[in-house]
Every structure is written in structure tokens, then in C-alpha cells.
Design goal:
17% of the residues lie in helices and 31% in strands. It is α+β, with helices and mostly antiparallel strands. The chain has two domains: 210 residues, Nucleoside Triphosphate Pyrophosphohydrolase; 48 residues, Ubiquitin Ligase Nedd4, Chain: W. β5 and β6 form a beta hairpin. The protein binds zinc ion. The site of zinc ion has 8 residues, from loops.
């Protein structure tokens, strides 16, 4: 039974029965850009500084994107594995023959536990010149606004995952229109965000268990001071910039969080290697 279905505006009902259990070169413009964010941005202060330079030049002044810091970070993650996921044997941490990185290797069965980035998929839903956002009902970033998004599951495509997450978090049936952004976050969490532009199949939505509220926001009313994640901050700013320029594009970029800053400081990053087409 649905307690709240919203046609337009906001919906703060809580539905659970209806929803499945939630889970926790070519063609690109040759633009390498670096976007910096200071501590006082509003939507209008989003600064994009495009430099017509090679990627290596662009990255040379990004202290948090050095390969050495990435390697250290990855090595740290690998060392967290203590036991083999297949046989339960104790793991050792060495560089396997023919490889370059330290891996967790089972001392009993010899299998290597490779750790790879996770993909987060979600939807930027346009409806009547507004954007659908969800207020998070779970940690991290409880009470802050986000796009409906979550981890891609085994066996589904990125678009299918984005549609599923939108259903779970916003109770909205959507149709994916086009890819909008791929944002890599190599230093924190090792994640790649893939965000699709989407539209509502029906003008209805209602918050799922992970959301306390879902709202359609005019572009100028997006709560930039209360967003949950850097990736969402970047996505929405890129979208607004596109809308105001009259052409919505596809964006690729790397979000390099500044070392020593916490996840809650969503503006402590640079957007590097920004490509758009
Ligand atoms: Zn083993």
C-alpha cells in the first residue's frame, strides 16, 4: 500500500512493501580542463577553467592525482584483506609474479584477491524543466540531497541499474534518455559514477526506504548547500551549465578529492581531465 504518491512537487511518504530490499579520443572534444571549487560556491560560482593543453600538463599541478598517491592508497586497501574469500585461509600480501601491485594472496589455495573499483549508477531526471532529488534517509550524508543512485549489481547493465536505483529510492519509473556523465573518483572509495539523463514514465514518485523525501527542483532552486556528495555537486553543476548554454552534453571527468579532507566536505576537490562531447 502506498502511503504517498506525489504527482508533482515533493513527497515525503515512506513506502516499503512496494519496493525490493535496498542495497546498502574519438568524438570527445580535445579539451583537458581543470575545475576548481573554493569554499563558497553557489550554483553560479561553479568555475570551469578549460585549458587547451595535454592531459599530462593538466594533471601536473593536481597534487592529489599523482600516481604515487594512488598506488599508496590502493596498497592500503589491499592490506585490509586478512582471509581468503574462497577457502578462508590466511592471506599474505605480496606482489605476484608478473604484476606490479601488492595483492592479497591466499597462503592455502594460492588464489589472488583482486580489488577493483565499484560502479555507482544513477539518474538525473528531468521533468517539466525540473530535476528530481532525494533526501537521504540513511548514512552517509543523512538528510542531504542526492540524485537517485547506487551500486551496480552483478548481472545488470548500467542503465538497468540506474533505473532500478531510481525505483528503489524515488519510487519513480523512468526511461533512460542518454548517458550524461562518467565521473571517476580514484582517491576516495575507488568509484566510478555513471549518471544517465532520464524522464519519468509516469508523473509520479514517492520516497523509498533510503529516502525521507523526494522533490522536483527548479534549476535555480537546487539546494547546493545541502548536497550529499561531490559527484552530485559536479553532476548538477555540469547540467546547469549545459542547460544555460542550450546544449546538454556528455561529460567525463576525474574528481580528485583533496587529501586530508573528509567525505562531508563535498567541495574539497578538483575536477580533472574534463572531456565533453
Ligand atoms: Zn584460499
Amino acid at each position: 500500500m502506498l502511503k504517498a504518491i506525489q504527482i508533482l512537487g515533493c513527497s515525503s511518504g515512506f513506502i516499503s512493501q512496494r519496493l525490493k530490499k535496498p542495497h546498502s579520443g574519438n568524438g570527445f572534444s580535445l579539451i583537458s580542463s581543470k575545475t576548481s571549487y573554493n569554499s563558497t560556491p553557489k550554483s553560479l560560482s561553479f568555475r570551469v577553467i578549460r585549458m587547451f593543453s595535454t592531459p599530462s600538463q593538466s594533471n601536473s599541478d593536481a597534487p592529489s592525482s599523482s600516481s604515487s598517491s594512488v598506488a599508496v592508497h590502493l596498497a592500503g586497501n589491499v592490506r585490509k584483506i586478512k582471509f581468503c574469500q574462497w577457502c578462508g585461509g590466511p592471506a599474505k600480501h605480496e606482489i605476484p609474479d608478473g604484476e606490479e601491485k601488492i595483492r592479497a594472496i591466499c597462503t592455502l589455495c594460492g588464489k589472488i584477491a583482486y580489488q577493483n573499483p565499484k560502479m555507482v549508477v544513477g539518474c538525473l531526471i528531468e521533468h517539466d524543466r525540473k530535476i528530481l532529488l532525494c533526501k537521504r534517509n540513511i548514512e552517509p550524508s543523512l538528510g542531504l540531497w542526492t540524485l537517485p543512485a547506487g551500486y551496480l549489481e552483478i548481472g545488470e547493465s548500467a542503465a538497468e541499474g540506474a533505473i532500478r536505483e531510481t525505483w528503489e529510492e524515488a519510487g519513480a519509473e523512468v526511461e533512460v534518455i542518454s548517458p550524461f556523465a562518467q565521473l571517476d573518483i580514484p582517491l576516495i572509495g575507488q568509484q566510478t559514477y555513471v549518471i544517465f539523463l532520464a524522464k519519468l514514465k509516469k508523473p509520479q514518485f514517492s520516497p523509498g526506504p533510503e529516502s525521507s523525501e523526494c522533490c522536483l527542483f527548479e534549476v535555480d532552486d537546487i539546494p547546493f548547500d545541502s548536497l550529499a556528495f561531490s559527484s552530485i555537486f559536479v553532476t548538477l553543476n555540469l547540467y546547469i551549465e549545459d542547460v544555460k548554454s542550450g546544449k546538454v552534453k556528455f561529460h567525463y571527468g576525474t574528481i580528485n578529492k583533496r587529501l586530508g579532507t573528509g567525505p562531508s566536505d563535498i567541495r574539497a576537490f578538483t575536477l580533472d581531465y574534463h572531456l565533453q562531447v
